[in-house]
Amino acid sequence: MNIKNSVIFVFTHIRGVFCLWDD
Known about the structure:
The protein is mainly α.
C-alpha cells in the first residue's frame, strides 16, 4: 500500500469521526 494512500485513508477516517461527533 502506498504511504500517500494510507495517509488519505486515515485522514478521511478521522474526518468521518469528527463529522459524527459534530452531528
